Amino acid sequence: MLFRSVSYIRTDEQLRQLFRQIEGETLLALDTEAASFHRYEDRVYLIQLSSRSATAVIDPLSVTDLSPVGKALADPGIEVVFHDADYDLRILDRDFGFRARSVFDTRIAAQLLQEPGVGLAALLQKYLNVHLDKKFQRADWSARPLSQSMLAYAATDTHHLTELRDILRDRLQASGRLAWAEEEFRLLEGVRWTPRENSDIDLLRIKGACALPPRSPAILQDLYRWRDTTARTRDKAAFRILNNQPLLELAKTPPKDGPALARVPGVGPETARRAGKAILAAIELGQKVSEDRLPKTKRTPKPKADPGFVQRLERLKVARNAVARRLDLDPGVVCPNGTLEIIAGGAPQTLDELRQLESVREWQVVEFGGDLLEAVAQSGK
Questions:
Q1: How many CB atoms lie within 10 A of CB 270?
Q2: Cα–Cα distance for residue pair 270/264, rounded to 1 Å
Q3: Topology of the domain comprising 307-378
Q4: How many CB atoms lie within 10 A of CB 94?
Q5: In CATH terms, are 6-188 and 203-293 the same topology?
Q6: In the chain, what are the domain boundaries?
C-alpha cells in the first residue's frame, strides 16, 4: 500500500482481486505512463486505475494477463475517465489491442467550458484544492524498482479524476454543452494507433536542414543513421545520444579529428571520447556520397491556391471567430483551421452537405452551421 486505498499491482492474481473488489462499478479513471523521453522503444510502463472507492497502480512489466483492463475498457456499461485521452488510447491499442467504448475526457470538457487552465494540475487545484507535485513529470517509468514517491505521484493522476469528472459533467450540463462533449467523446472511441511509414530518413523533419550547403545533407543523413542505430542498440531516446543542433553543426562544418569534435557545441569531450570514432566515420561516409546520390532537402513548392478557396477560407475564419466570441470559446475549440479548410474546399450549400464533410461535428452544424454556410455563400458574391 502506498497511501489510503492505493495498491501496487504486480501479479495476475492481484489484478484479478482488484477487479473482483470493484466489480459492478460503472465509472473508472485510467491513465498510462510511457517513457519516450528516455527510451528508444516506447511502450506502456505503468497503468493507473481508479474507481470511486479504490486506486491501483498496475505494473505491465510484471502482470502477464492484463485482460481485465481491456474488458473494462471495452464494456459500454463502464464509463472510463481520462485526462487528454488521445495518446493513452493510441498506446493502449498499440501495446495491448485495448479499445474504449465509453469515454469521458476531462481535458475536452475543460476546453468546452473555456477553463483558463486545462491541464490536470490546474483543474485539480481549482476544483478540488489538490496540488500535483511535478517532481516526477519526466521520470523514467521504465526503471525498476519504482520508489514509493514515484508510485504515489503516478496514483494522483487518477485518484481524483472521477470526482473531477462529476464536477465538469455538471457544469457541461448546466451550460447546455454536455451533448457537444459527448459527441467528442464518442469520436475518441475510434482512435487507433497509426504506425509511421517505413521510409528513408526525411531530413526535412530536422529544422535547419534546408539551409545547409550542398554536401552537408549527405553528412547529416549518415550522422542521423549513426544516432538512430546507437539509440536503438542502447534503448535510449535519440536526443539523449546527440541533439539535432550538434548534428547540424557537424554536417555544416565537419571536424577532422577527435579534439576538433570535442570542441563542437553540444558534443563535448565525453561524447567525443565515447563515440568519436563512430561519429567521424559517419561524417566520412557522408563526404564520399556521389553527387547524383545527394539527398534532397528542398521542399516541393505548394501549388497556388484557388482564389475562390482562399476567399471562402478567410470568410469562414471571420465567421468562426465571431461564433467563438459569442460562445466565449477559443476559436480552435469552436472549429479548428483544418476543418475550415475542408469546408472551404467542399463549399457546402446546405446543412446536410456540411454535416457530410470529414471532421465536421453535429454540434457544430446545429450551433453555427448557418453562419458557416452564409460565409461560404458570401464568398461567391
A1: 9
A2: 12
A3: DNA polymerase; domain 1 (1.10.150)
A4: 16
A5: no
A6: 6-188, 203-293, 307-378
Task: Give the number of other Cβ atoms within 10 Å of residue 116's Cβ.
Answer: 7
* Beta-strand pair 46-50/27-33: antiparallel
**pLDDT category, 89, cuts 50, 70, 90?**
very high
**Is the per-residue pLDDT at 17 higher than 70?**
yes
Give CA–CA dist 311/335, Å, rounded. Answer: 18
Residue 149: CB partners within 8 Å, gap ≥ 6? Answer: 135, 136
What pTM value is reported for the model? 0.89
pLDDT computed for residue 299 by the predictor = 67
- Residue among 78, 67, 132, 126 nearest 100 (CA): 78
Report the distance separating Cα 76 and Cα 103, nearest Å. Answer: 9
Q: How confident is the model at residue 1 (pLDDT cuts 50, 70, 90)?
A: very low
Residue 226 near residue 279 (C-beta atoms within 8 A): yes
359, pLDDT greater than 70: yes
Phi, psi of 200 (to 5 degrees): -65, 165
What does the alpha-carbon distance between residue 335 and residue 312 come to, in Å, rounded to a whole number? 15
**Is 1.10.150.80 the CATH classification of the domain at 203-293?**
yes
C-alpha cell of residue 237: 531516446
Long-range contacts of 53-56 (CB under 8 A, 24+ apart): 53/5, 53/22, 53/25, 54/5, 54/6, 54/7, 54/18, 54/21, 54/22, 55/5, 55/6, 55/7, 55/155, 55/158, 55/159, 56/6, 56/7, 56/8, 56/9, 56/18
The rounded distance, in Å, linking the Cα atoms of 211 and 224 is 17
Q: Give me the CATH topology for the region 6-188.
A: Nucleotidyltransferase; domain 5 (3.30.420)
